[in-house]
Amino acid sequence: MKMMRQGKNERRLDDETGKSVTELSSRILVALVAVPLILWVSFEGGVLFFFFIALVSCVGLWELYKLMEQKGIFPAKTLGLAGGFAVSFSFIFGRLQFTLLEFAIRSRLSLPLPTPRQLLVILILVFIAAVLLYELFRKRGSPTANASATIFGVLYVSLFLGTLIGLRELFVPGDFPAYRYFQLQGAFVTPEIAQKVYDWGGYTVASIFAILWISDSAAFFGGKLLGKHKLMERVSPNKTWEGAAFGFFFAVIAAVWARFFVLDYLSYPQAIVLGLLVGVFGQMGDLFESRLKRDAGVKDSSHLIPGHGGVLDRFDGLILISPLVYLYLDRVRLRSAPRLKRSSRGRVLCST
Questions:
Q1: How high is the pLDDT of residue 289?
Q2: By Cβ atoms counted within 10 A, which residue in 36, 79, 105, 258 is the most buried?
Q3: 35 three-state secondary structure
Q4: Is residue 10 part of a domain?
Q5: How many structural domains does the chain have?
Q6: Selection from 149, 130, 152 nearest residue 140 by Cα
Q7: Cα–Cα dist 185/124, whole Å
Q8: Is the domain of 61 the same as that of 199?
Q9: Which of 124, 154, 169 is the last residue of a domain?
């Protein structure tokens, strides 16, 4: 009897080991494809980056709505997805404005176009009104819970991730205050400066992804090696204060590295603040999404990504840090620029 029990334990251990190896292989294969793809669309920017984030947002929103259905709440999924896509579109609307204005001038039309931020407010208000009217005639579940869940999903996933599109669009040369960072000859921006500014945008978004990935990895391995004190056991039993400290520390280090190599429009104190935002709120975003999953009684938001779970599982930290980094860097971009120096290679060096 004892030998039979020992044999079962050995088989169970072998099964768990094989499952872990398979899951690790799936994670590595997905990362080999996903990481270059994400970095490529980040550097390309524009409409391509918009469609990528809009797709991620819509899939993540669908997963969130499915989690809510586990709790007996029935969001208006189709209406929510349409509203989420519209919210994402508002962050790229600035590019379309110039095309529409050019068309209006040629056609001698008067088009009262809103600004991108005005459009965002308009779309959110119209969306909320549409959800309320929809629930007025719907006969399923609680109208209060359904409407709240539908609106919450769009604000939490689509609006927050949409700010990442807005962040990338901060570095469009025609809108970026290049005169604060470069010594211009006249009022026009040269092609070289325009390309430099646009590259800054790609490097910024890619750096945010990299800092977040480094922070997550450091938190995981730091917790595995030294973790003793539980961070929030009722939400995520495996996370520890030691792991969180590792993630926080390496996020700041990664941000400083990014400043040294590619983000030379930032000063080092500004880069440290960027690392602090990602290191703290990236982990908080992860915990919040874990809280939602635990409330719904599921381990993963979906099984869409082999070895990784769902889109929400992979982008949970990014959802929370995107609006914070967007607002912070927009403030940095609009504030008075620091005194500039230039290296022998012509790079912009901040002296403050």
A1: 92
A2: 258
A3: helix
A4: no
A5: 2
A6: 149
A7: 42
A8: no
A9: 169
Looking at the fold, whether 258 and 164 belong to one and the same domain comes out as no
CA triple 16-22-27, angle to 5 deg = 125
Output the CA angle 325-327-329, nearest 5 degrees: 65
Give the whole-number percent of the chain exceeding pLDDT 70. Answer: 87
Report pLDDT for 136: 94
Decide if pLDDT at 336 tops 70: no
Which tokens in the block code for residue 260? 């040294």
Q: Is residue 77 part of a domain?
A: yes
Q: What secondary structure, in 3-state letters, does 49-116 show? A: HHHHHHHHHHHHHHHHHHHHHCCCCCCCHHHHHHHHHHHHHHCCHHHHHHHHHHHHHHHCCCCCCCCH
> Residues 268-287: what's their mean pLDDT?
95
In a domain, 48, yes or no: yes
Structural contact between residues 85 and 59, judged by C-beta atoms closer than 8 angstroms: no
Residues 239, 350: one domain? yes
Between CA 167 and CA 153 the distance in angstroms is 21
Q: Model-level pTM greater than 0.90?
A: no
The parent domain of residue 207 ranges over 192-352
Is the CB of residue 240 less than 8 Å from the CB of residue 229? yes
Domain check: are 156 and 212 in the same one?
no
CA angle 46, 51, 56 (to 5 degrees): 130
201 and 157 in a common domain? no
- pLDDT, one tens digit per residue, over 13-25 is 444 444 455 656 7
**Which string of DSSP letters, residue by residue, matches 336-350?**
PPPPEEE-TT--EEE
Residue 174 lies in a domain: no
Say what the pLDDT of residue 349 is.
45
Per-residue pLDDT, 348: 47
Q: Which of 36-45, 65-74, 93-102, 142-151 has the lowest mean pLDDT?
A: 93-102
